[in-house]
Amino acid sequence: MHHKTIAELSKGLQAKEFSSEELTQAYLARIKQLDPQLNSYITVVEEQALAQAREADALIASGKAVPMTGIPLAQKDIFCTNGVRTSCGSKMLDNFIAPYDATVIERFNQAGSVMLGKTNMDEFAMGSSNETSFYGPVKNPWDTKTVPGGSSGGSAACVAGRLAAGATGTDTGGSIRQPAALCGITGIKPTYGRVSRYGMIAFASSLDQAGTMTQTAEDSAMMLNVMAGFDERDSTCLDMAVPDYTVNLNDDIKGLKIGLPKEYFAEGLDAEVSKTVEAAIEEYKKLGAEVVDISLPNSSLSVPAYYVVAPAECSSNLSRFDGVRFGYRCEDPQDLEDLYKRSRGEGFGSEVKRRIMVGTYALSAGYYDAYYLKAQKIRRLISDDFKQAFEKVDVIMAPTTPTVAFNIGEKVDDPITMYLSDINTIAVNLAGLPGMSVPAGFSQNLPVGLQIIGNYFEESRLLNVAHKYQQVTDWHNKMPESFK
Amino acid sequence: MQWETVIGLEIHTQLATKSKIFSGAPTAYGAEPNTQACAVDLGLPGVLPVLNKEVVRMAAKFGLAIGARVAPISIFARKNYFYPDLPKGYQISQYELPIVETGKLEIELEDGTTKIIGVTRAHLEEDAGKSLHEDFHGMTGIDLNRAGTPLLEIVSEPDMRSAKEAVAYMKKMHSLVTYLGISDGNMQEGSFRCDANVSVRPVGQAEFGTRTELKNINSFRFVEKAINFEVERQIDVLEGGGKITQETRLYDADKDETRSMRSKEEAMDYRYFPDPDLLPVEVSENLLNEVKASLPELPDAKRNRFVEEYKLSREDANQLTADRETADYFETTAKACADAKLAANWVNVSLAGALNKEGKDISESPVSADMLAGMLKRITDNTISGKIAKEVFEAMWNGEGDADAIIDKKGLKQITDTGAIEAVLDEIIAANPAQVEQLKGGKDKLMGFFVGQVMKQTGGKANPGQVNQLLKKKLGL
Hints:
The complex is a heterodimer of chains A (484) and B (477).
Chain A: H1 6-14, H2 20-38, E1 41-44, H3 46-61, E2 72-76, H4 103-111, E3 114-119, H5 153-160, E4 166-171, H6 177-183, E5 186-189, E6 209-214, H7 217-227, E7 257-261, H8 271-286, E8 290-294, H9 302-317, H10 336-347, H11 350-363, H12 369-392, E9 395-399, H13 415-420, H14 426-431, E10 435-443, E11 446-454, H15 459-472
Parallel strand pairs in A: 2-3, 2-4, 7-8, 7-9
Antiparallel strand pairs in A: 1-3, 4-6, 5-6, 5-10, 9-11, 10-11
Chain B: E1 3-14, H1 39-42, H2 53-65, E2 69-70, E3 73-74, E4 76-80, E5 90-94, E6 100-108, E7 114-126, E8 130-132, E9 141-143, E10 150-156, H3 163-180, E11 192-202, E12 212-217, H4 220-239, E13 247-252, E14 257-263, E15 273-274, E16 281-282, H5 285-293, H6 299-310, H7 314-321, H8 324-337, H9 340-358, H10 369-380, H11 386-397, H12 403-410, H13 418-431, H14 433-440, H15 446-457, H16 464-474
Parallel strand pairs in B: 12-13
Antiparallel strand pairs in B: 1-10, 1-11, 2-6, 3-16, 4-5, 4-15, 6-7, 7-10, 8-9, 11-12, 13-14
């Protein structure tokens, strides 16, 4: 059953070919058997999952099911889940049992989906390789010596290894698209404000956005149908109608104008990755799309701007982890200062501390204008680049990452090189645009992702463009050998 | 050397909303610790703030009332610092773009002169929780009920030149926010408190001296005492050849002194930046018009109307209009008894005295406006004298019923029957021949003696004017 997509599983459940309980059991068994190789889950909630599955079966029996009812999913451990540990990949929250559900979780519960467990991730979503997790690195099912990407590395690996039918992720600078690319799955980061951030532990509030990680674009559309939409508990969530994302999947893309930004095909791009992406674009030409060369001239500024804005917001967002009310508290604090210093010093890992320090510095008196304010101005320039591009083209395509998955341990001591692995994804977050990654082939037997960027709120179009490609290719159906 | 004091005040007033500024938790005072703090107030991982619309209306109301500019767009910012009763590690406040800018307030001093005090800005922010240091065996307890309570911080220009002016400004501001209904102004509960920026300079010097900021002043009395103490301290330092250090000082009401908390060098860098969880606050023209239409009559306008409509002295009118409840009480009483001056006297003197003695607010007065008016009517129709009225008022205060019932029960009705008074007078004249002679001989002061005797015999129920008249008639004066 684990070969099936969410769309196929949904049909099987509705047709009562199998029950959600059987399906859930099958996934739980695979997790038990195979996850030790991947470390993609931090917490598995076997009993709760089976109880949810039985409820889903009752819903299906009573004819009250919706398409996502009974589908076993993995939730990134950044979403608060009532009564279940929500660690955010950190020692700081290793003991934190959330007392409420994030809006995203609440909506999946309402749809009758099943939560198998919580997936591993870079600590507080800060990382591009899943090596910063307190719970140890996640391994890429295509080659367990390599990283799955990050920060949603657990979600990507478990979907690629078919240890869940689909998973949620969050994307602040590429944390859905980059691991989706490195693990050979489909992922979409919607427009900023499309999915509620309530209950999603904040890293950089103006960039964070939840999305999906699935085998196919159709599956992502089905999941997004549940997740997207206004939530009065998030002031940055947009109050506008949500289309049914599955409706336009098969629309003809003849005449679609694809922009290829030259800055994304420049120095640093692996030649084979480049070739693979170019081949994917050839497929689009066959489908009737037109290709236009474009320029996003401020692209080179996106990484530096991002590494001011994101740490600045993170330094403030993570202040609440102070050992006072919840989370890790140091042993035997001598006084208040000691409590703060040791609780935070011992509770946070080194990448998180690095970003808190960078952010604190960037916001300090005398530096604010030179760093934070300047970075915000650059953000505007980057948005304007995209705005101008979308006057000429319908979507923009580029490699999701400049290389395929790298080896575990290869970049941990070199943060700058690590940061550059998100060079192609960050600008999308700075502009707040929707972006996708779609499996487009292999290089050195490791998956390559094609990034598709759309204009604001054009998730439907992105999913349509990705789906049409998946109708004529089968990269998304490929499975890693030991997880077949 | 002659010194001039320069004062600016930052007033924090708690806005009287039902729920908190960024969450749905209630704001009521005095609940068990941590029972009025929801996930958002506790700063749990993942929670987000959502602005309470009512606070925007209230701030707009305030802005209009002080003739300020209400910003069409204002921004919430994060003020970052660590403290155990600050759950998120930052306070959501407004920094670069506050909701209210450049207004003014007219104050009136004891000698009747008026002065305009500039209001630099007023901004919205959330309050922190409370750290409780007692009863925890050397540990500190945290109560987050107050966390997230909406505050309006009103920052004045350094326009005040004495502690008295500062008190007048604070009182006037208190009166204004309670009139507007945007705050209950309860100072004991901390709903209205202030920090004072104080400096001194030689008279005639244009530039300001180095200032200190006095924290934690929660009464009108303390603001005066704290400033006076600080001014003297600064003058002492300067005259002793020293320099004032720019610092934050805490006023200790028990010791009546200020002491250093932290110097400018130790001042925190709050790392303000726009809160990415909140959208810019928009105040539309429509909202402003709506708020404008809902503005109540403000203290100055009410005072002027009282002077004109009820022919009261400015001083009486000022006292009556200091707070809206007293003004309403007075107006109800005045209308019901049809003698505004009499009503003003009773509200300002006897009622104010009784309330003050028991530390009660006018809303808690056991004598309602209608009850007071009922008694005043009995004065104007000569049923009782002003003197007897004091006894009736006291009985009403003690819950013995309304004026008519008390007059009836205690037999306090004034004797207006001429025959009865004459009978008493005859007796007194007969018993005091020597005084009669002296009075007839021109010692007018003795009139008082006779009237007093009659009052004594009648238990104060005779009408003194009437006694006077009858006595003169009898003795042929």
